[in-house]
Design a protein that fits this description.
Elements lengths: L1 E9 L5 E10 L2 E6 L6 H8 L7 E6 L2 E2 L4 H5 L2 E4 L11 H11 L5 H14 L15 H13 L5 E5 L7 H14 L4 E6 L2 H7 L2 E6 L2 E6 L1 H5 L6 E6 L1 H7 L5 E7 L2 E7 L9 E2 L4 H17 L2 H4 L5
Parallel strand pairs: 3-8, 3-9, 6-7, 7-8
Antiparallel strand pairs: 1-2, 1-4, 4-5, 9-10, 11-13, 11-14, 12-13
Helix pairs in contact: 3-4
């Protein structure tokens, strides 16, 4: 189990990337959902011991991560958002190289492990191809193999499906779901559909703060009976989207679809619908936006 307690991270330029982040991540697949710039990568790097927080504690099982980062690295698999590969080497050569770096020095055992990982990520048939000819999805699957080659107990993957086509995206998510049967997997993404598809628990991160956490069903439950949808012309939508209850708008053929929250529909044009995790995400974004637009005194009356 991975436990984060009151993590704060600030940078030299004054940006406060993480604010009092506390999470408990149990075995399985845990999704960290947030827009670009929410602090997801900062949190991933902090857990991976690539940077120290200004405040807080991180534990993995009985291990105090900040006191003994080397011990976590020995049991960690990490796939960052951007990673480099040696373009002139084959998939097999690269994976073998990283296996050596991870301490798998006995040749026969290492060869067996490399074979097993290439098979697991479905790269066995292209093991002798140079990686500069790989597609984005093939590169990501090789990255997963590198992260898993030393049998980690904790796997961190940061935006693994960004830029992939639908087939590769589903293939990678299926792979991660299988891995999560054995280890703790922390998946960071801005794609709601990814966490909705495979994650048992989800945390929503906005402006460096965890604003919601729970199972997808738990997060969706408060919106049931209070979510409304209208399909309007573009002229109607131009005025309708300004209503404070509107949380999202989406273009549709010849129309604009608006979603709104509240005990009653904003206008008779709205009909009740069942919410999903994307509606939760947009509702939190709208709440944050409205809070930032409100006068300071109304947001923090206890200070005045």
């Amino acid at each position: 189990m991975l436990q984060l307690d009151s993590i704060d991270v600030s940078y030299a330029n004054g940006v406060r990337a993480l604010r009092n982040v506390s999470l408990t991540v149990r075995p399985g697949l845990f999704g960290l959902l947030g827009p670009n710039g929410a602090g997801k990568s900062s949190l991933m790097r902090t857990i991976a011991t690539l940077q120290r927080p200004d405040r807080g504690r991180i534990r993995f099982g009985d291990l105090d991560v900040l006191a003994d980062p080397a011990a976590l690295r020995a049991t960690l698999g990490y796939l960052p958002q951007e990673f480099g590969l040696y373009p002139s080497l084959t998939a097999e050569e690269i994976l073998d190289h990283f296996a050596v770096l991870k301490g798998l020095t006995e040749p026969a055992a290492r060869r067996a492990r490399v074979d097993a990982m290439l098979e697991r990520v479905n790269l066995q048939d292209v093991r002798h191809r140079r990686v500069d000819g790989f597609s984005g999805g093939m590169r990501q699957r090789l990255g997963i193999a590198i992260a898993l080659v030393a049998s980690p107990r904790l796997l961190i993957v940061d935006e693994p499906t960004a830029g992939l086509d639908p087939a590769e995206r589903h293939r990678l998510l299926d792979l991660l779901a299988g891995v999560a049967e054995e280890v703790v997997v922390l998946l960071s993404t801005h794609l709601v559909a990814d966490v909705e598809a495979v994650c048992q628990r989800v945390a929503i991160l906005l402006a460096g703060e965890v604003v919601r956490e729970g199972t997808p069903a738990e997060l969706v439950a408060p919106l049931r009976g209070g979510l409304w949808r209208a399909r309007l012309s573009r002229d109607e939508a131009a005025a309708g989207r300004a209503h404070p209850a509107v949380i999202s708008t989406r273009l549709a053929p010849g129309a604009v679809v608006l979603h709104a929250t509240g005990p009653t529909p904003p206008t008779p044009a709205y009909a009740a619908i069942e919410p999903d995790l994307e509606d939760v995400f947009f509702a939190e974004l709208a709440r944050r936006r409205q809070a930032s637009d409100a006068p300071v005194a109304s947001r923090t009356p206890q200070n005045y």
